[in-house]
Design goal:
The protein contains three helices and 48 strands. Strand 29 and strand 30 form a beta hairpin. The N terminus is likely disordered.
Length: 696
């Protein structure tokens, strides 16, 4: 059991201007212990993730009487963190791709090694300090904060950098530009994104993983409680969970006295389970949870540089160390229920099958690619264009695509199918248009040649496979062959299974096998050896890999098996998934004419930070209801304004005082938006809130 010497926090003195001596005294009085605090100060305006040079590292000690001061030279200090004893600070020099350490007094600066740091941890049994980091694979510079992609996750000994250990390589981890990671005190569990924006907890090294929420930063409590938080896309709330992702509650972070709109950033659990650090513009805070961890009880404004920084600039990446006292014992998390890597209940989709290679139910499920060694690796999808998740967490595709992060899933599918010379593909399709021409799913080469493609043409769904090298004598190597065409029904999810073996394709619709006489004709010898399938592949939903051939509709319940299912097995697939489609109701809609009366500014690319898409909040006055649920008066509407870091075309048409036709659904019926970036400057807190689906 952990023993702490910490005392409670008193009332905040938020009206007080920043004074280094007073802040140091208050820091001691409020925490009841020796406390150290750090933050970064930008010398010029830059992105909130602070990936550039032109930063200063500032510190404050409650005991030394020196006040706030700068240590080290100006440069880049990306996500600096205290060591377990509070005596040193470790960070990443992002442009140099190097991890560095300095003593609290500014001495002892040295480079640890190459990589991007995520966490610093002391082994309670050996006293060895470890730095957890990911190696960085250099990519083409595209935009601020996205210069590098993270590779494997390692840990390296802070004082013996020649000693390092592989910790995680089952999935990408963190965000492409930001590696946030936090560990329990015993080092067993780690909170992060696996990868962003699916936040959850993993057991290190390379153990089980569970996804508990979607959003930005995440954290796990340093005690043995197993509490976990994930930051919401609006940067106003923590979604706080107990172990297992249960007992969710929303904890507001924008309740400090000086709050003046905008976002809160950089939330991080300190080494004390009651305390959190965060920033809001030119101010950095130490915040205390209440006893039930349902709200922030009080704040200490540790640093206030509003006289030196404009509102658009930020004190960055704060951290705090609170002395736990000489009797501190690192808490043991062995009492927590172990994470289960597969975590599927018997009798539920996707069921048990040794031939299962890939399973993606919806965004909230524990989706997996099953590797050749029998292990399962989590799968996260990345949306682009106008594609997004629907209210049932399904893929909602329109002028965009979804792709699994990395190429592990695609490569594994090709490997398994080529070995088995057979496959079965299951998917639940709800088409958006009764007649269209677009790609639903494609398994492609790096050159965008299709190994396999399922697409809609007019009102039919077809499957294409490449011609065989052997039997076609190379004349049409790789050219597609349509092997099946099935008429889709309107406005309802349809469960499909495509089964291929020995040149024959069978298709099942809602568990029923279709007559091969209606399959559109195929010579069995044309695709019986898979020699035309290429190894270098990508798995794409909603478009071809190059962004062409868009399809509008919804997808879920996707599984791929390296086996030819029997009719009874295909029927069982439908029976397993059918319960998820029962009693499913779409959110109520209201089509209205409304006048725009107040608008949140559309964020610039620099303001987007690590996000690629964003909603903004606007206020309208309803003029009349055209159809659907009647609405009147003023309403607040969340509307997508940015996709792929570019303003959407219809945003340029928005003008205060103009009237617009909107299709609205209650925001409460769209839980999938919880983790999406939201910028909200509207102060009408009494108006009902809706999501606009006209363009989506």
């Amino acid at each position: 059991m952990a023993i702490f010497g910490w005392l409670g926090m008193g009332q905040i003195h938020a009206e007080q201007a920043f004074d280094t001596q007073i802040s140091a005294r208050e820091l001691r009085r409020e925490t009841g212990a020796h406390t150290r605090f750090l933050w970064t100060h930008p010398l010029r305006r830059q992105g909130k993730m602070q990936h550039e040079d032109g930063l200063e590292l500032w510190v404050l000690d409650s005991e030394d009487g020196k006040g706030a001061r700068k240590i080290g030279a100006s440069g880049n200090y990306h996500r600096p963190l205290f060591t377990a004893d509070g005596k040193r600070i470790v960070w990443t020099d992002y442009p140099a791709r190097e991890m560095r350490v300095i003593n609290f007094d500014g001495s002892g600066l040295r480079t640890i090694g190459k990589g991007q740091m995520g966490e610093v941890w002391r082994d309670p049994e050996t006293g060895v300090d470890w730095v957890y980091y990911r190696d960085l694979v250099e990519g083409e510079p595209r935009r601020e904060g996205h210069l590098y992609e993270g590779g494997k996750t390692w840990r390296i000994q802070l004082d013996n950098p020649e000693i390092k250990e592989l910790i995680w390589d089952r999935t990408p981890i963190g965000h492409a530009s930001l590696f946030y990671l936090s560990l329990t005190a015993d080092g067993r569990y780690a909170a992060s994104a696996y990868p962003w924006a699916g936040n959850g907890v993993a057991e290190f090294p390379n153990g089980a993983y569970q996804k508990w929420h979607f959003g930005c930063w995440s954290g796990i409590s340093p005690d043995a409680s197993g509490r976990f938080f994930s930051f919401d896309g609006g940067h106003r709330f923590l979604h706080l969970f107990d172990w297992g992702g249960v007992n969710k509650r929303e904890v507001r972070l924008d309740t400090m006295q000086e709050y003046d709109r905008g976002d809160v950033y950089y939330p991080r659990w300190t080494n004390h389970p009651d305390y959190l650090v965060l920033s809001h513009g030119p101010r950095a805070y130490l915040a205390k949870f209440n006893e039930d961890f349902t709200e922030i009880e009080s704040y200490i404004k540790v640093a206030d540089e509003s006289h030196r920084l404009d509102r658009g600039n930020w004190l960055g990446h704060p951290d705090a160390w609170i002395d736990p006292g000489p009797e501190y014992v690192a808490p043991d998390t062995s009492h927590l229920e172990p994470l289960d890597a597969v975590a599927e209940v018997e009798g539920t989709w996707p069921g048990e099958s040794e031939a299962l290679v890939f399973a993606w139910k919806n965004r909230t499920a524990r989706n997996r690619v099953y590797l050749a060694d029998g292990s399962a690796s989590p799968v996260e999808m990345r949306a682009s264009g106008l594609s997004r998740y629907g209210s049932h967490w399904q893929m909602r595709l329109r002028d965009g695509q979804f792709t699994p992060t990395g190429n592990q899933a695609a490569n594994r599918i090709v490997e398994a199918v080529k070995d088995a010379k057979a496959f079965s593909i299951e998917l639940v399709v709800d088409r958006g248009l009764p007649r269209q021409d677009g790609t639903i799913m494609a398994l492609e080469t790096a050159e965008d040649d299709a190994n396999l493609r399922i697409y809609q043409w007019l009102n039919r769904v077809n499957i294409e496979l490449p011609r065989s090298v052997v039997h076609d004598r190379g004349a049409n190597k790789g050219s597609p062959r349509r092997v099946y065409s099935v008429i889709m029904r309107n406005n309802a999810p349809t469960h499909l299974v495509f089964v291929y073996e020995a040149g024959n394709v069978d298709v099942y619709v809602d568990g029923e096998q279709l007559d091969r006489a209606h399959m559109g004709g195929m010579n069995p010898w044309e695709i019986d050896d898979f020699e035309a399938w290429a190894d270098a592949t990508k798995l794409v939903f909603g478009q071809r890999g190059d962004g062409s051939d868009s399809w509008q509709g919804q997808l879920e319940g996707i599984s791929i098996h390296a086996i030819a299912m029997t009719p009874s097995e295909a029927r069982a697939r439908y029976q397993l998934y059918a319960p998820y489609l029962e009693d499913r109701a779409d959110p109520p809609q209201s089509e209205v004419m409304a006048r725009l009366i107040s608008m949140t500014p559309v964020p610039s690319e620099q303001d987007m930070g690590i996000y690629s898409r964003a909603l903004i909040s606007n206020e309208y006055e309803v003029i009349r209801t055209v159809k659907g649920e009647p609405l009147s008066g003023k309403v607040v509407v969340h509307q997508y304004a940015v996709a792929d870091r570019r303003p959407l075309p219809h945003v340029r048409e928005w003008k205060i005082g103009e009237e617009y036709r909107l299709v609205l659904e209650p925001l409460d019926d769209h839980p999938e938006l919880e983790g999406e970036r939201l910028i909200d400057n509207i102060e009408n807190f009494m108006a009902p809130v809706f999501f606009e689906v006209s363009h989506w």
